Every structure is written in structure tokens, then in C-alpha cells.
């Protein structure tokens, strides 16, 4: 955790703000905070294309509907989002308008990201808005999203958006000024980490999430976002959105917040989609030989290495790969066979596929070009 910050020239920037920064519990949108955010973004827009990922619709709607706390049922959350999203966008429209910055609303669900055609369409829409010098304001489409089609939190959504547009930097603005070794509100000796080279299991254990009535995500989801951003080759910073001029200071290279370094071996666009945008539809457990061949020798997955098959998936869908020892997920890939076919050829040699199925369309269960080691 000693690497220097490597930002380079930031031409495309994704900024994510949480509900706690742009709303006040029981009141709704906090105009002064929105104005400060707009001024901060306007101060760095020269020569850059910026996307804002903003929470706050449900919190705003909750206040406008006079509800005593955040709704729990999906219909009530959707109703609050419908009421709150328009109010939140109106506030953004007014605040950025004072800086001659037009804004555009983009609402996404997990289906828009997991379906390859819709994923590319979302990318083209965002790039077109940036081309027209419009600030896209992205949020999950909570008015229609149910659990099956939810990304779940805007930290992970912002990392997916950063990957989608090939951003040069992702900044998560929150009400804390970075990742600490312990909860600084209860441990005076807790130290803020300036730089994190990789989100290891040890780093992940530092997350100390608090539950409140406004925010959905926490430090755990921010570290998930850091992993996604790193794999996409995008550096990430967690910083306090309550500090004046924080974005300018980050771009000037100051040691603000906690910096998460990107991986040097950046995944290609399709492999980023496989790894992070698509929920696995099944799980394959492989033996030690297959695990070594996939992770150490860059081989494709053959039926002979499969030990167990879980789920009911179709050919062309993404599945997770687990090692037989420990059962930990180590890869994801696009399968060439459906679950029923794989149960028939599990453990078979390549030459035995046609005999077991009556036909053979592929030698590999997952070709290495469609496989991502996590």
C-alpha cells in the first residue's frame, strides 16, 4: 500500500455521490449541497467529459411523501423513486444550469447491463451525450427494478459505468474521507489508508458498514466497486464530498481520500462485461488439474475437468467456476453447452462428446477467449 498515485491525464471522469451528500433525512434534496457539487464539477470540466452517478431518488421521494422512514416493500420504494427522481433532477437541472452545463437523465437496470445488445446501446447513449457536451446523470431505475433486475447499489453501478465508457478515473464521494484501518468514530487510533494497491481479503475485512435510513451502500460496496474498476484499468478514489473543491484537489494529485490503483493488465471490453456486468446463471466446479490449466497455462475448459454442475443455464450464458478444494469462485465464462448437455458430458474426454450427445458442436465447454480469471 505504498504505490504513488497514477492518474495521468483524466479525460473521462465518473463521479458518484451518495444519498447522504445530496439529501437530508426527512427533508429531501439538500439544495446547498447540490449547488456545491455542481460548482465543484463545473470547475474541472474544461477538457473533460464527466458522468455523474447520483443516489437520492428514494430518499427524496420518502420525504416528499411524508413517510417516517425509508420504504421496505418494492412497490413503496418504486413509488418513492418515481416521486423523488423528478424532484432530484429538477434540482440538478437548476444547479448545473447556472454553470451553463446541460444535463441528461439516464436510468439503468441490471438487465440493461447484463444483456450484451442493451449494454452496447447504453454505452453508445452515454458517449453520444458526452459528445454533445451534456452531463449524463445516471441512477438505477428504481421505479421499475425488482430484485431480479437490480444492480443493488450505485457504488457498483458507477464502476460498471466507468468500465462502460472507458473512464480514466472513478471518484466515489461520500461522508467519510477514505478507507480506515478501523471505524474512526469509535477508535481514535484508526488510520486512513492513502493508497491501496489491490483489494485483498485483508483489505475487504476493513469495511465497517453502518446502517442508516438514507444510504443503501457502505464501505463494502465501495470495495466491490474498487475491484471492478481495477480490473477495468480504472483508478478509483474514495473521498469526502463535504470538502470544498475536493474534485480539483484529487485531479491536482493531492493525497485526498484513499486511492485504489488499477491493474496493469487491463481486461478487454468484452471480458469486463463477462466478469462484472452479467450475473452468473450457474456454477461449475472443476478439479485441481482443470484449475491449474485454466489459471496457470491459459487453457480452455474441457468437459473432462468438470466435477459438479449447478443451475439451469442455456448455451451462451455466463457461469461461475469454482475449485473443488474450498469451493471459491475463481473465474467466469460463457458456456458452449447448456446445463442438461453438460450433465451428460461431465468428466468426458473430448472424443467422447459426440458419443454421449449424438452430436458435437464444440470441443470446449468454455473457450479461453470467453473466460475471465478473477
In words, what does this structure look like?
With 374 residues, the protein is α/β, with parallel strands linked by helices. The chain has two domains: 12-267, Carbamate kinase; 280-373, Archaeosine Trna-guanine Transglycosylase, Chain: A, domain 4 (Roll). It has 14 helices and 15 strands. It has helices at residues 19-22, 31-43, 57-64, 74-97, 110-114, 116-131, 154-164, 201-204, 219-231, 246-251, 269-277, 288-296, 339-345, 353-357, and strands spanning 12-17, 23-24, 28-29, 49-54, 103-108, 135-140, 169-174, 195-196, 236-240, 258-260, 283-286, 306-310, 318-323, 329-334, 371-373. The strands form three sheets. An eight-stranded mixed β-sheet has the order 5-6-4-1-7-9-10-8, with helices on both faces. Helix 2 packs across helix 4, helix 3 crosses helix 4 (74-97) and helix 7 packs parallel to helix 9 (219-231). The longest helix has 24 residues, at 74-97. 43% of the residues are buried.
Amino acid at each position: 500500500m505504498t504505490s504513488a498515485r497514477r492518474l495521468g491525464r483524466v479525460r473521462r471522469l465518473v463521479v458518484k455521490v451518495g444519498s447522504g451528500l445530496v439529501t437530508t433525512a426527512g427533508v429531501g434534496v439538500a439544495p446547498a449541497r447540490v449547488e456545491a457539487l455542481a460548482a465543484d464539477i463545473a470547475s474541472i470540466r474544461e477538457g473533460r467529459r464527466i458522468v455523474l452517478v447520483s443516489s437520492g431518488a428514494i430518499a427524496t421521494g420518502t420525504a416528499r411523501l411524508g413517510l417516517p422512514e425509508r420504504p421496505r416493500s418494492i412497490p413503496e420504494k418504486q413509488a418513492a423513486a418515481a416521486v423523488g427522481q423528478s424532484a432530484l433532477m429538477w434540482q440538478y437541472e437548476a444547479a448545473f444550469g447556472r454553470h451553463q452545463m446541460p444535463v441528461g437523465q439516464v436510468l439503468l437496470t441490471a438487465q440493461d447491463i447484463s444483456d450484451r445488445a442493451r449494454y452496447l446501446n447504453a454505452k453508445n447513449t452515454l458517449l453520444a451525450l458526452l459528445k454533445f457536451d451534456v452531463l449524463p446523470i445516471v441512477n438505477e431505475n428504481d421505479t421499475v427494478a425488482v430484485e431480479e433486475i437490480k444492480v443493488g447499489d450505485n457504488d457498483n453501478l458507477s464502476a460498471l459505468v466507468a468500465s462502460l465508457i472507458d473512464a480514466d478515473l472513478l471518484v466515489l464521494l461520500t461522508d467519510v474521507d477514505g478507507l480506515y484501518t478501523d471505524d474512526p468514530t469509535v477508535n481514535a487510533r484508526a488510520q486512513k489508508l492513502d493508497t491501496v494497491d489491490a483489494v485483498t481479503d485483508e483489505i475487504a475485512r476493513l469495511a465497517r458498514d453502518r446502517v442508516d435510513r438514507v444510504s443503501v451502500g457502505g464501505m463494502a460496496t465501495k470495495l466491490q466497486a474498487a475491484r471492478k474498476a481495477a480490473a477495468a484499468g480504472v483508478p478509483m478514489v474514495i473521498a469526502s464530498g463535504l470538502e470544498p473543491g475536493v474534485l480539483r484537489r484529487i485531479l491536482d494529485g493531492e493525497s485526498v481520500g484513499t486511492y485504489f490503483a488499477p491493474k496493469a493488465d487491463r481486461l478487454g471490453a468484452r471480458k469486463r462485461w463477462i466478469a462484472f456486468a452479467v450475473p452468473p446463471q450457474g456454477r461449475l466446479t472443476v478439479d485441481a488439474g482443470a484449475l491449474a490449466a485454466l489459471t496457470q497455462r491459459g487453457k480452455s475448459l474441457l468437459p473432462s475437468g468438470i466435477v459438479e454442475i449447478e443451475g439451469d443455464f442455456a448455451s451462451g450464458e455466463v457461469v461461475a467456476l469454482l475449485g473443488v478444494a474450498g469451493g471459491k469462485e475463481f473465474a467466469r465464462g460463457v458456456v458452449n453447452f447448456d446445463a442438461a448437455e453438460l450433465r451428460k458430458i461431465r468428466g468426458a474426454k473430448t472424443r467422447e462428446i459426440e458419443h454421449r450427445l449424438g452430436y458435437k458442436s464444440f470441443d470446449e465447454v468454455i473457450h479461453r477467449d470467453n473466460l475471465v480469471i478473477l
